[in-house]
Specification:
Elements (H helix, E strand, L loop, with lengths): L8 H21 L14 H4 L3 H10 L3 H7 L7 H24 L4 H10 L2 H6 L3 H20 L2 H6 L1 H9 L5 H12 L5 H30 L18 H6 L1 H15 L4 H21 L1 H25 L9 H18 L5 H26 L2 H16 L4 E4 L6 H6 L5 H11 L3 E4 L10 E2 L4
Parallel strand pairs: 1-2, 1-3
Helix pairs in contact: 1-5, 1-6, 3-4, 4-8, 5-6, 5-8, 6-17, 8-10, 8-11, 10-11, 10-12, 11-12, 11-16, 11-17, 15-16, 15-17, 16-17, 17-18, 19-21
Length: 442
Amino acid sequence: MPPATAIAIPTARGLWLLMAITVIAALLVSLPNLRDPMLRYDDFPALLADPSGFWPKTLHEGRWLNYLWHLREVVTPAWLNFVVYQALWAGFAASIAFAATGAARHGPILALLILVAPPATLISLWFNTLMPGLALVTVYGLLGCVLRPRTHRLLMPIFVVASFMSYTTYPLLILAMALICSPEKSVRDLAGLLGVFVASFAAAVLIVYTINYQVHGIFGVPLAAWRAASPASDIAGMIQNIPLVTQSLSDLMIKASFSFAPAVWFHLAMLVGGTLVLARHVPKEALYLHAGLWMGMALVVVQILKMGAIVPARSFLFAWIIYAVIIVRAAQVLSVTPNLAARLVLNFVLLVVGSYLLQTFVQYTTYRGWQAETRALAPAVKAVEGPVEIAGDVMQYPSAQLAGVQDPTALVFRLHYLTGKTVTLCAPDASCSDTALHLDQN
């Protein structure tokens, strides 16, 4: 893995060029969602800078950094926030690619492969809430490309603790970057790096627990009722939660393959093949990458077993990043002595990049119906004098189903954002007034 130490001007230019390519690609692939971006119902408080709407998540998810973000005075439009978020994600993808490949011709390939990670696309619908956490991750990634490795590693505890307060698995992205940037490949160095990470992660948990105790009077992060969790208090309880691990991993495989079953086996074969190539040619590098992968998987599995709740596919972003590094580095290593194997591996990687760029673009188009129909409903809402009622089952609305709308209040928040009015949902056969607007008529 090319070292990521202090760099000369030509190399620095290579980093900025790689970033520019990746940012442009990010904006192009998300073009269907740029003008009026889709966001999940519980992301609206962050968009509107409404700390009261996010307050319960400080207790149930420990996301105190995000809460501070909600306290800001300035409210910017959704499209601008989405552009910034996508640019930040592209910047992190470019920094990982630069650190792993040295910005050679494989750099853009790796950056694009990370960019189109299905977990990244899924989680991007919370772009307003996650912007500060992703900014931290991106800054750490870029620092890994310009700082000395020792300095970069000394900063890891700070970034692990801060990013944990934005999203639970963001620290695993910090770990991935630290592993890739490590110039010294040895078992002792790896053990030390993992030890620092584990201590930092434990400190992050302890700090969040302590803040919750001071503010909420609860030492811990109890899951919200809607998660229907079954926390384990002993080994027997953890064993009972094993099916949740299986389901979480199954969901990851399905969504990472865009519900195309043969692609699951293709990715697994690529992971195994890439690992074998690295194990043969650069075994210590393979050890570092797999240490990061399985450290992350172990932390997630323990969380599932202990908390008794499914972890969504978007939380496994770290796994896709390390998978991408493994297969692209395998292609790069084989390209040193061009042969049939080198061409095949590179072509397989390019196939994934090309198909996933297209799939990601298509994924962002699935939200356009919901966005367009709610925009069309907005003038009728504005025209109503007095209280506004909406009749109809939001969750059965075709465009809502296609967009994967998670809660009826998504329409309430969306119309409030578009019109500034407070909307009430009602059942036509029970509580609706004669002036209520009907979804099936608009």
